[in-house]
Amino acid sequence: MPEPTPHRAPTWPPSGILIAPSLLAADFARLGDAAAGVAADGADWLHLDIMDGHFVPNLSFGPQVLKALRGGSALPFDVHLMISPADPYIAAFAEAGADHIIVHAEAGPHLHRSLQLVRSLGKRAGVALNPGTPADAIAAVLDMADLVLVMTVNPGFGGQAFLHSQLAKVRQVRAMIGDRPIALEVDGGITPETAPSAVQAGAGVLVAGTAVFAAADPAAAITAMRGAA
Is-catalytic flag, 49? Predict the structure, then answer.
């Protein structure tokens, strides 16, 4: 059986409100089934949190797991590198099937070079901001970015509560983006209750882990978040 062909949005940034379930909240014994399940349930992207136990206090998975999942999913893979240094691993995740590769502004000394590398590999380049990092940290590289990800929890663990203090940063980043073709994504504590605030602040992509994978009906949870937003 041929492998699914990953869907690539013909225009960028994508329109409407997108839901990107985070596989970190899935059953690790059934990751392939989880990825297929959320695709059938209406997810727009699959968000993959890569953790190194150094930049964040947790370990998740690497490019080999990504490659195995790629063979069974046509969803765009939104790969969030919570690792430091990131540059030595970017090519491996690109080869494994990432569509977007997001690096943290805080993870290395040469953010511009990291984004250049991602783009040189034919992938969309993203930059992430931790709660304690100001929006101004990405001002000099916005023209190299296809995505900006604002963390609405401190990275490292799923299931945390949404930090409402970060909504001001989402609004600031939205203003900084202006008319540039950049998608604005938020990650952390997204539920049907918090999604409207994130979208009103300017987010267009909502990363949700526990709210999807712990739901009795993941399809209904995805629909509820998109509808609430």
Answer: yes
